[in-house]
Amino acid sequence: MSHAPPPLWLALPFAGLLISIALGPILARRVWHVHYGKAAAFWALLALALQAAMLGPAPTAEAALHALLTDYLPFMAMLFALYTAAGGIVVSDLAPARPRHNTALLAAGTLAASLIGTTGASMVLIRPLLQANATRQHKIHLVIFFIFLVANIGGALSPLGDPPLFLGFLRGVDFFWPLRHLWPHWLLTAGLLLAIFFAVDTYFARHEPKFAPGEAPMRVRGLANVALVGVAVAAIVISGVWRPGIAFDIFGTHLVLQNILRDGVLIAVGFISLAVTPQADRAANHFSWAPIEEVAKLFAAIFICIVPVMVLLAAKTDGPFAPVIALLSRGDGAPNDAAYFWATGLLSSLLDNAPTYLVFFGLAGGDPAQLSGPLAPTLAAISLGAVFMGALTYIGNAPNFMVYALARRAHVPMPSFFGYLAWSGAILLPVFILVTALFFW
């Protein structure tokens, strides 16, 4: 039996899906938001058909089931729990805010993003930020820095923060690895951006003829959901450290008891949140199932289409991705961490950052023990590239466009795709260059 990797053309559905995700919302936004599920289904079915023709129906079905049970289901259970619980936490009654209040709110959101996810933190805090600055004339910078910090960079400290890190956790990276290894990069980046924001906001505040500063009292409703978030966090942490040694095989897929219980608890958290949260609280947050519905459909296709890609990557220098691996390596064969940071990051800004993380995780060897240990700087570069540089464009991370849409609904004249790119390039790229110089060269 040949052990050669499958041919490169089996990766075409994955490439087609990522290109569709990247360009669909830009080139055909109205059509995309109606028919993205059909596009995802097309690429997934094409991937299955090509794999079945090449490898046979039984291995194809087994590989797809394995991906759905071990990656997709836990991924969606985590998102469902955090998205639903965070959507029931309402922060309100903020008075007109001074620049120091805005900076404190962004700092709190940056911290919260690693606890309830970038999507959850964005949903909870974008409305209070806009409410507290409703009388301001200059508000675009508020939303742009919110996207930088709360919707992206803040999520770098835990697998709960951003989908790429949770996928790393599912691949075997320790739950606390991001906190132990990424906090210096996170602290530097977030600190610099908060300082820049304070300076920019102070400048605009001084040119506000109708600016009425005041104290910023805050009222929080939905505290039961705060407790439910704690339950979700505990379930994920326990699943990473508890090893009862009990497992089940489902059509060739090995499922361990701790992961089954974790996913069950996460799903229960979501349904309990729906039961105990008043509809008025969800309405106040403009809660909608549309974002998670889109993620559910697109990621089902992503996890199916990425199966042959991961097999190709596992071949390393013996496979068709050998030239790419060479570009990411130094002359002595050691990984070039700066190249991993920028390659992962720039692709994450144009494609979805979760599958981009998986691809570069595979290119770096795909062994969680090696990447968490001797190759920790490489995994740090991949993780930070995926999380940080999703902030470069509206489409780099799922919460970005949600925040953009809510800001537009609040009559904030948000810049176009390329206008936002000008803001992000001018502010973020120098910071990322500094991060590269300090940590990856």
Walk me through the structure:
The structure is a single chain. By secondary structure, the protein is mainly alpha-helical. Helix content is 70%, strand content 3%. The chain is built from 18 helices and 4 strands. The strands form 2 sheets. A two-stranded antiparallel sheet has the order 1-2. A two-stranded antiparallel ribbon has the order 3-4. Helix 3 (57-86) crosses helix 9 (257-276). The longest helix is centred in the first third of the chain and has 34 residues, at 99-132.
Short structural summary:
With 441 residues, the protein is mostly helical.
Order of helices and strands: HHHEHHHHEHEEHHHHHHHHHH
The rough form would be described as globular
What's the alpha carbon Rg, rounded to whole Å?
22 Å
Distance between the termini: 44 Å
Strand order of the largest sheet: 1-2
Number of strands: 4
